[in-house]
Amino acid sequence: MSQSSQLASKPVEIGPLLDHGPWGGYQKLVLFMTALAVILDGFDNQVLGFAIPAIVKEWGVSRAAFAPIFAIGFLGMSLGTALGGMLGDRAGRRTALIAAVALFGVSTLASAFAPNLVWLGVLRTISGFGLGAAMPNATTLIAEFSPTRRRSLAVTLGIVCIPLGGLVGGLIAAHTLPSLGWRALFIMGGIAPLILTGVLAVWLPESPRYLAGRPSRAGELDKVMARMGHAHNGAGFTDHGETPVKRASFGQLFDQAFRLDTVALWGAFFFCILSTYVVFSWAPSMLSASGFDLAVSSNGLAAFNLGGVLGAVAGAWAILRYGSRVSMLVMAGGAVISCALLALTPLDAGHGATRLMAGLFVAGAFINGVQTTLYALAAQVYPAAVRATGVGATAAVGRLGAIVSSFVGAAVVSTGGAAYFGAIALTMTFTLVSLALIRRHAPRALASA
């Protein structure tokens, strides 16, 4: 056999094709479908926060009674995030994502018919498993369908759909709660994911990185690569570009190459998500307790999420131009300053709504900008073989911050804006310190113009 024939018979390495190839229409379609799942994740994640003022009025319970419900729901999210990441590495990112969307859709729909706080807590815990499991697999799918030079941007565009889902939820809640009540909000939040489950089952492909490690699915890999414009030479595809790992495990996240960044990422996720969920879960209740009506209370969280959408997109662009270290430290510092200013701003239901909305918009831009780009940073730190496990474990630790936020929010929700926003400024200070300790930040991808 000639040397040229031997070369022709070798499988094609997919690493260079995926990491340095074009970011084509098929990859962007995957981003779009995955982003829809993240939008609904963001909506269902925040739906209880929107509904609390109306539930308090209907059931005659205290706001503090919802702290255990939030906590157990976030515990479900934490476990779901970790287990979902492992399921993604073992059963496939596509399979895990579809299952997660179906789970939080069914349980959110069922929550509309909850007769009391106990059943609401049980159903929100089940929802938490699905909501948590969706994120690491969505992040990993987007990352593995994106070339290296666009990976941070692609992941951030996907994760920015969390506040986008909250924005949509806030606008819907502002119109739905006064007229149709809180149960209608949960019904909408349940039906939409179930519809999307069918769409994903038909059209969402599996990650080529995942398929490349499973010879029995070579035909499926061939079809995915062909849709991306890459044909092989008859010998198929292979992927030797990543460090080989026999079986993904949490222990590998503490190998020498990842140990320091794993701990620092965990700290950044914990404090940033704590900050975010103090707002997501408790802002409408805090505003309602301060004298604002249901529409203004919902719109306040919508303003926070709108700022988050724009801040995350701006953060993704800044990372491309300046790298993640400078960009994320600036955003975290901006979050500290903006929340400190909100803590010094009196809440006046009669005349201060516009000023409050502006402050929440700015704080949302910085806080959500950090949170969404953290997912992109985590996706870059870990190789494909343990990426879903790494992102899942990191996000799971972040979910512990969400659990803590249940009790932090309950403690400050009725004390006014000074304590409420002061607590957020403090936790974002800890986020800033954690980000400064990370060594493997993403380098800039665009030359200065």
Q: What is the CATH topology descriptor?
A: Growth Hormone, Chain: A
Question: What's the main sheet like?
Answer: 2 strands, parallel
Rg from alpha-carbon coordinates: 22 Å
* N- and C-termini, Cα separation: 52 Å
The CATH class assignment is Mainly Alpha
The CATH homologous superfamily is named MFS general substrate transporter like domains
β-strand number: 2
DSSP helical segment count: 17
In what order do the strands lie side by side in the largest sheet?
Answer: 1-2
Beta strand %: under 5%
Percent range for helical residues? Answer: over 70%
- State mean pLDDT (0 to 100 scale): 84
The tally of structural domains comes to 1
Descriptive labels:
about 450 residues; two-stranded parallel ribbon; about 0% strand; about 75% helix; 2 strands; globular; Growth Hormone, Chain: A; mainly alpha; disordered N terminus; 17 helices
Summarize the structure.
This protein is an all-alpha fold and 449 residues long. It has 17 helices and 2 strands.
